[in-house]
Amino acid sequence: MDASSDRELIARCREGQSQAQDSFRALYERHSPAALRFLRGLLEEELARDALQETFLRVFRQLERFDPQRPFLPWLLGIARNVAADQRRWRARRPAGPLEGEVVDPRHGAPSKGAERAEAGELLRRAVRSLPAREREVFLLKQVEGLTYQQVADALGCSLRTTKYRMKAAVERLERELRDLGAAPEGSA
Questions:
Q1: Angle at CA 53, nearest 5°, toward 47 and 56?
Q2: What does the alpha-carbon distance between residue 69 and residue 112 come to, in Å, rounded to a whole number?
């Protein structure tokens, strides 16, 4: 089953063959890590895990609409993007949770190296989360998931030119945000 292409797995799911359940499970196991990474960039952990399940439920329901001549992952991540947007709208109607505290090395009373890395990672995550949704989506798909610009454009349903423009804007905004937070050297922009 692992050697089957996404197209073969989808065809088995569509045809309702006896291996349909195994084929869909193989698609899930192959692509859920990428979808979860993308969703974690758009949502908080708990919501991202819920959104992952909803994403694959929608994928299953919409398999007939998938164009097998195109790559599966951008299509999947486009659905994940829509699920995340639904989650953000839902979340906007709910109150925000408490802020997390700083990790401190108990032996020295100062932040540990691990805590400093965690803080730098958190600064970057916060900066990425502060991006406008369209820029954040492009950034995550390109930089985190490693999609090509064309695949990002396909996943988001926009032009290649728009995708590149949004990526440029995202990088510039991230550099400014990180510089303002003291996490990027002066003069980088």
A1: 135
A2: 50
Domain residues for 44? 1-94
136: domain CATH number is 1.10.10.10
pLDDT digits (tens, 9 = 90+) for 5-32: 898 888 888 877 667 888 899 999 999 9
Q: What is the DSSP string of 23-64?
A: HHHHHHHHHHHHHHHHHHHHS-HHHHHHHHHHHHHHHHHHGG
Q: What string of H, E and C letters represents the secondary structure of 68-128?
A: CCCCHHHHHHHHHHHHHHHHHHHHHCCCCCCCCCCCCECCCCECCHHHHHHHHHHHHHHHH
**Domain check: are 126 and 75 in the same one?**
no
10 Å Cβ neighbour count for 189? 9
Q: In the chain, what percentage of residues exceed pLDDT 70?
A: 77
Instruction: For residues 134 and 131, give the distance between their C-alpha atoms in angstroms, rounded to a whole number.
Output: 8
Q: What is the pTM of this model?
A: 0.66
Nearest to 51 by CA among 81, 72, 94: 81
Q: Would you give the distance in Å from CA 42 to the centre of its chain? A: 6
